[in-house]
Amino acid sequence: MSLPAKKRKDLIVTFGTISIPAKTKELINDILENKRISSGKYVRRFEDRFAELVRVKEAVAVSSGTDADILALAVLHDFGANRGDEVIVPALSFVATGNAVLHAGFTPVFVDIERETLNIDPTQIEAAVTEKTRALLPVHLMGKPAPMDSINELAARYGLKVIEDAAEAHGSLYQGKPVGGLADMGAFSLYIAHIITTGEGGIVTTNNEEYADILRSLRAHGRACNCRQCTLSSASKYCSKRFQNDGVDIRFRFDRIGYSCKMNELEAAIGLGNAEIYQEILDIRRRNLLYVLERFHRFHPYLATIQEAPGERIGPHAIPIIVQEEASFTREELANYLEKKGIETRTLFASMPTQCPGFAFLGHKLGEFPNAEYLGNHGIHIGVHHNLGLQEMEYILETLNRFLEKFQR
Ligand SMILES: Cc1ncc(COP(=O)(O)O)c(C=O)c1O
After folding, report:
1. What is the spatial distance between Cα 129 and Cα 155, in angstroms, rounded to a whole number?
2. Radius of gyration of the chain from Cα atoms?
3. Below-50 pLDDT ranges, the chain
4. How far, in Å, is the centroid of ligand 1 from the Cα of 287?
5. Is residue 263 located within the same domain as residue 333?
């Protein structure tokens, strides 16, 4: 995938892109030809491929990254968790993380983040643990791995489960291992902004086969029938388990409060096509991201970003940029300038408990999560996708330079 050099006036830096490789078209034709759209063999194949990439035993595909978070959390109900129990999450994330905790029937307990890593501050987690805590849900924000060693150690000490929100962390490594396989379960988004995409979609990864069985049941209304391959739903196959239970049809027995969030075959076909070019996409995005990160110190002390720590590899999701206290300009001025120069920006989310009105009912007050709130007011992120190259990365750096010359007094 090499990109032709562009004239300066043609340079635009969009936030995201999608690839539809020939493989996807071929599979979609086959799916349409055979009229099997709902979850089937291609979803299973995609699950196997994704599990391989994350180096875990099982992957269970669902309709979105939010559903992946919700279902992973809902598994806790099979292990004694009660509605209203607590799950610890970083205060700063895409709002889906906090929403998922509530939708799974738990109360989110927020912990502030570190400004340098954007991730949950490991020194503040223990103080948030109570008798009702059941799980920790760290987020690998912007592909930067959360401090999993201290998180797993704390969880083991208190008997808590750990679910990694790896929505933005495709390709991230922590001590040489892919994130999403470092704890009880990992939850990925496959929405179009992410490296492997299915258009809309999500997937839960785990090394625990029992969790995978529960996840398959949860995504299909909580039904008792949770085989990887349901012979009953593949027309005219005989299922010997069907009436095994006192004559009750296991496909219509519902063991737990479930959801309806299966992935369909067309989405899996997009995912399988993307998985074929995964390494290529990852390499381009990594090259783009590192090009900017390595040159970013020139903007010190006015702008900050993240850096790769020893032993980790940042998943190349996007370039976060934080306007620092020393700056004499605002985030709005920066974002408006970049947008006018053809560089799309997104804000760097918000402190869920204190800057997202939907969480107001939890009663938190502005000032409780100073780092998350600072980023909520001063952060943006910019794309590094695989249809961009070093020319665009250089353009981002030059544009930031010119902005500082103009706006920093
Ligand atoms: C950290 C985080 N968690 C969860 C999600 C939810 O994913 P989706 O949009 O696929 O529901 C996202 C979305 O990108 C995210 O950034």
Report:
1. 10
2. 22
3. none
4. 24
5. no
Tokens of 119: 């991730």
CA of 65 to the centre of ligand 1 (A): 5
Which pLDDT score is estimated for 1?
56
Rounded Cα gap, residues 188 and 167, in angstroms = 4
- Using most ligand atoms within 8 A of CB, pick from 15, 168, 189, 346 the residue to mutate for ligand 1: 189
Check: CB of residue 182 under 8 Å from CB of residue 156: no
* Segment 5-57, tens digit of pLDDT: 777 767 899 999 998 999 999 999 999 999 999 999 999 999 999 999 999 99
Q: Is 101 contained in some domain?
A: yes
Predicted pLDDT of residue 226? 82
Same domain for 252 and 291: no
Domain closes at, from 224, 243, 275? 275
Ligand 1 within 6 A of CB of 143: no
CA of 96 to the centre of ligand 1 (A): 6
Question: Is 67 inside any structural domain?
Answer: yes
Query: Is residue 3 assigned to a domain?
Result: no
Q: Is the CB of 98 under 6 A from ligand 1?
A: no
pLDDT of residue 228: 81
- What CATH number should be reported for the domain holding residue 52? 3.40.640.10
Per-residue b or e along 262-282, where b marks 16 or more CB atoms closer than 10 Å to that residue's CB: bbbbbbbbbbbbbbbbbeebb
In a domain, 2, yes or no: no
Does ligand 1 have an atom closer than 6 angstroms to the CB of 40?
A: no
Nearest CA to ligand 1 atom 12: 167
pLDDT at 334: 98
* Domain interval for residue 119: 22-275
Q: Do 238 and 294 share a domain, yes or no?
A: no
In the chain, how many domains are there? Answer: 2
